Amino acid sequence: MTTGPRASVATTGSPSDSRLRRATCLVLLAAAATLAAGRLPGATGTAALVTLTFGGLVASAVACLRLAGRSGHPAVWRWYAAATLATTLGSGLVQVVSGDAVPPTAGALPGMLLALVPVALLIPAATWRGLPLQLASSLSLFVVACLLCLLTVFVLFNGGDLDAGTTDGATLYALGIVVALTTGVSLLLTTSSTGPLRRVALVVLAAQLANALASSIGALREFVDPAATDPPAVACAVGVLGFGLLAVAALADRSPAPTVPADVLLSPVGALLPHATALVGGTLLLVSVLVTGELSRVGVVLGVVGLALLVLHQAVAWRDHRALTADLTRSEAYFRTVVRSSVDPVVVLDDQLRVAWASSGVSDLLGRDADRAVGHLISEVVHPDDAPGLFAGLRSTAGDEGPEGRTRTARLQHRDGSWRLIQARVRDLRADPDVGALVLYCRDVSGRRGTDGADVALVTATDPVTGLPTRPELVQRLATLLRDRPCRPTALVKIGVSGLGERPHPAALVELTARFARLLRGDDWLVRSGTGEFSVLVAGSVTDAEAVAHRLTGSVDPDTPLGGLRLSAAAGIATLEDDADAGDVLRRAGTALTSARAAGPGRVRRHSVALLIAQNRRDALRRDLEVALERDELRLVYQPIVDLALHRTVSVEALLRWSHPTWGEVSPAEFVPLAEESALVVTLGRWVLGAATRTVAALPTSSVAVAVNVSARHVRSGELLTDVLTALEDSGLPASRLTLELTESVVLDDVHVADELLALHRLGVRIAVDDFGTGWSSLAYLVGLPIDVLKMDRQFLADIEHDRQRRALCRSVLHLGSSLGMDVVVEGVETPAELQLLRDMGHRFVQGFLLARPLEAVDLPDRVARNAVAPTGLPS
């Protein structure tokens, strides 16, 4: 059973206590009148008893219906009205239809079971969400324990086992289950409700207990004396009382359910009740064995089930406890890291003004190790002239401090002997049981030139979104470490997060900060060093830094969007060497980060001489690429796409090549990413469109189309549509013979891409998704876009000759494209076996070295004409 916080909730329009008292008195009078009617002799007493009982139940149902519209939970009381009527009609119909064959209690069971619904609706939703497995195991254990108690009591008084094969025995078992369930849920309602709902829950619990008692008395009467025809007066009176109390509860319910926090805790009563009930049941079972000398088979079964549920309940409770402990540990690590990373050092003092804890910023402030400061009196570093005023302010009571605390200024001695003027904001939290100390937020104001200048310096050193130090503070910390040469090795880890955009959303930054902080050690220092960059100073070896870097990059999963953003991370590491200054360390970490990003998401690279050489090459290529077009070093080659059904080349893909004057042929995998880092890729894309359309338009055949790759930056530039129109107009190439190839990430992630693609599609330009199946494909989204072609990546062909599952996957993708009305082009066909398998699958369009390598523009006309009959390498 669970309970929420005990905070009170204001009542609105609650009925006066006098009305509730009058209603309660009326219910008690009705119960007393029912009991008195049962004392009347003969048929008159029986008729009066039945009339008052059924009349009381119907009146209770009508009252619940009438009060439902004015209550805080209308549906609850309508359900209770339905349950009351079902109980009344069920017991009455059983007596009329079956006579003595079926006990009346059996007819009341459906209505009693229906009463579970309104009780469950009254329980706050947070209770169900908080600890669902604990609730389920607790309720199950309570039900089994109640059944065990029922069975053993019956055995003790009857001298024999309860036979479930008889009507009476089955009725008693069913009644025990229903009563245990409704009582358990009512107890759960009582322990989980707060404010005005608590009073309603107590009345409902009292009504449920009364109804359970009435049903039990009636059932036992039917079992002990099956020949009795008159209903027991006590059971009827208690039943009238129970159902009448439901109407009182409806009258008391005038407020909606209070908001209960999600961190629902088990109350002591709720946690112990199932165990106590199980203990009672087990004890009674042992007593029955001692008294009767026999062990009931049903009792054994219930005992075993109860023990299993007890073990399950403890296992679930242990698991939840571990989860709560882990959350607490992560939360503590997060806040400890945030405090350690704060620009302003934090010092905690006990009642004797001894340092109980200090953040790592104290080392920069006073040149003293923060851990070694613990246990020392603060008077050891305070200037003698400032000590009296400072200590008087610290020892004064908290009655006169404002919400931000008191501010005190004093001179503290640096390790080098100089005096620093420190301004401390003091918060007296000695009355707070969670802290019980004085907390000082310190700031060095020694070099202050007026308040405004100091505030500006503080703002530039602290990131306003995450509260972390920024790059200037990192540079200062690096300079201090390089100057003082600490005994422990230190490394700088630079984390680059891709996908945040030029203006990252604050919520994403805060979430990233929280993730990173939870994964850091106590001595690690987290900094926000750039728009999409974080840095960590790791006190330890390069191996320690690599472990930290892997944990941080692993916490940013591209397959798990953060606030709608698909993020990825890479990391670069640089150690603090003797020959380096702060700028050198930052540049080396940046070089390593660039290499890691080029290697792919989640990669970590350590700075080395080889890495520096590779970076110098990239820098040189980046500079030379800007003038490559002017020097006529770029050209296009064309790789044919073959239709297996027609045995002819139907299209060519334009591929960019670079002949460098020094390094010769530069791989596109090396220079294309460099171009995509700047607006140069848009210029190159525009040139490729023009050159490719002119070349294909000049071919002797009018049936060959051309495919051109389009970069993400070109799509985002808003110039793609204009560039395509210009290329088609200048070349004279029909729009239907031009295909634009975009990667999945561009198609799925760009918010403006859909409108751009739709406009191009209306012109007649065909749109292809390149490398399909290697990224973040969302088929539902692709169907909604004007996609004409899917280019299936080479990875689908890997080991297709021997792997049956890969063949099935390849066939499924091909069938999928055909079903969606899209052409599918299989890239990277390199062996005759792969080609034959594709032909056997009925596939048409292929591209790969087996059929043709990329051709120079001068060789393309001859190849197209020659392949009009059958391309080289294509089996007949």
Keywords for this entry:
eight-stranded mixed beta barrel; five-stranded antiparallel beta sheet; alpha/beta; 876 residues; 5 domains; disordered N terminus; Beta-Lactamase; flat; 15% strand
Which helices and strands, and how do they pair?
Layout: E1 2-3, H1 17-38, H2 42-68, H3 74-98, H4 104-114, H5 116-122, H6 125-130, H7 132-158, H8 167-192, H9 196-224, H10 233-252, E2 265-266, H11 268-292, H12 297-341, E3 346-349, E4 355-358, H13 361-366, H14 370-373, H15 387-395, E5 406-413, E6 419-429, E7 437-444, H16 451-461, H17 471-484, E8 490-498, H18 506-519, E9 525-530, E10 533-539, H19 542-554, E11 568-575, H20 582-599, E12 604-606, H21 609-628, E13 634-643, E14 648-660, E15 664-666, H22 668-676, H23 680-697, E16 705-709, H24 712-716, H25 720-731, E17 738-743, H26 744-749, H27 753-763, E18 766-772, H28 779-783, E19 789-792, H29 804-819, E20 823-826, H30 832-840, E21 845-846, E22 855-856, H31 860-866
Parallel strand pairs: 11-12, 14-16, 16-17, 17-18, 18-19, 19-20, 20-21
Antiparallel strand pairs: 1-2, 3-4, 3-7, 5-6, 6-7, 8-10, 8-11, 9-10, 13-14, 13-21, 13-22, 14-15
User: Would you tell me the structural class of the helices and strands?
Assistant: alpha/beta
Helix content: 40-55%
| C-alpha end-to-end distance | 76 Å
CATH level-1 class of the largest domain = Alpha Beta
Percentage beta strand: 5-15%
What is the average of the pLDDT values? Answer: 77
Largest sheet: 8 strands, mixed, barrel
Calculate Rg over CA atoms: 40 Å
Tell me the name of the CATH homologous superfamily of the largest domain: EAL domain
Tell me, briefly, the overall form. flat
- The number of helical elements comes to 31
CATH architecture of the largest domain: Alpha-Beta Barrel
Order of strands, main sheet, comes to 13-14-16-17-18-19-20-21
Q: Could you give the count of β-strands?
A: 22
Enumerate the spans where pLDDT stays under 50 for 5 or more consecutive residues.
1-15, 259-266, 397-404, 448-460, 868-876
Q: Structurally, how many domains make up the residues? A: 5
What is the name of the CATH topology of the largest domain? Answer: TIM Barrel
